[in-house]
Every structure is written in structure tokens, then in C-alpha cells.
Amino acid sequence: MTNFRSPTARGHKRTPISIEIMVNGVLNFVGGRICDLSEGGARIDGASMPARSRCEIHYAGEVTYAVVMWSEYDRMGVRFPYELTHGALYKALEAARRSVATDPPPVFLTSRAPVFGRRGLN
Predict the structure, then answer these.
(1) Comparing 1-5, 56-60, 69-73, 75-79, which segment has the lowest mean pLDDT?
(2) DSSP string covering 25-43, please?
(3) Is the pTM of this model over 0.85?
(4) What is the C-alpha R_g of the chain?
(5) CA–CA distance, 38 with 11 (Å, rounded to integer)
(6) CB burial of residue 9 (10 Å; 0-12, 13-18, 19+)
(7) Pfam families annotated for this entry (predicted)?
(8) Averaged pLDDT score across all residues of the chain
(9) Which long-range contacts (CB under 8 A, 24 or more apart) does 59-67 make?
């Protein structure tokens, strides 16, 4: 029996982020922006390389290796061969997850009478 995962099943939660990076391919050095990051991969806008090619992501003086999983004209999705567990990209991911706004809990909903309007018209 084959262990099949659907395309929507992911091992890590993706986090929206905005990080300026440099991507080093075999023949070129391209600037881009990580717009979606997790421990297992990223979506990079503004840079594109062929699918299945290997690249390096340069950020904050550190290098993270990646494999291009899909590619379009002006963006691509990469997978990290080794999960992010430390380093500059991981710290940026943790900071982005801490700063994500959560919905505030409802306030005073249980103490209000179930009536219509400010004056309690029914």
C-alpha cells in the first residue's frame, strides 16, 4: 500500500511573512521576497528557477539550501532538504508567528440581554 498525501496536506503551518532575500542558482544571483514560510519550505516571489533545480537562499549572512518544487513566471515554491530548526530564517519565522494578530475574544456577550437595539426594542 502506498502512503499517499493529498496536495493540500502539509507537515508544517505556513506563515505569511515578508523577507528580502537573494537566491543563488547555478548561473544567476536573483533578488526575491519570501512571502510564505514554514519549517519545510517557502514561496518566493520575484524569482523563478526551473522546477527540480537546487538553489541557495541567502539571508542575514546565512545560506539555506532548497529545491525548487514548482515554478511560475515570477514566483516559485521551494522545499528545504533539512527542516528549519535554527538560524536567521527560523528566527524570522518565529518572530512572524508571534506577531500574527489573533481575533480578540468576544467581550461582554454573556452579560447582554438578548434584545434588539440599544433600547431593547422587540
Answers:
(1) 1-5
(2) -SS-EEEEEEEEE-SSEEE
(3) no
(4) 21
(5) 9
(6) exposed
(7) PilZ
(8) 84
(9) 59/19, 59/21, 59/22, 59/34, 59/88, 59/89, 59/92, 60/88, 60/89, 60/92, 61/88, 62/87, 62/88, 62/89, 64/89, 66/41, 66/42
Q: In sequence order, which ranges of the chain are alpha helices (DSSP H)?
A: 88-99
Kindly tell me if the per-residue pLDDT of 24 is higher than 90: yes
Asked if pLDDT for residue 1 goes beyond 50, the answer is no
8/51: higher pLDDT: 51
Tell which CATH classification among 2.30.40.10, 2.40.10.220, 3.40.50.300, 3.40.50.2300 matches the domain 15-98: 2.40.10.220
Q: Of 18, 118, 37, 47, which Cα lies nearest the Cα of 80?
A: 37
How far apart CA 95 and CA 117 sit, in angstroms, is 42
Q: Which three cell numbers stand for residue 5?
A: 498525501
Distance CA 39, CA 89 (A): 9
Give the angle 98-99-102 at the CA atoms, nearest 5°.
95
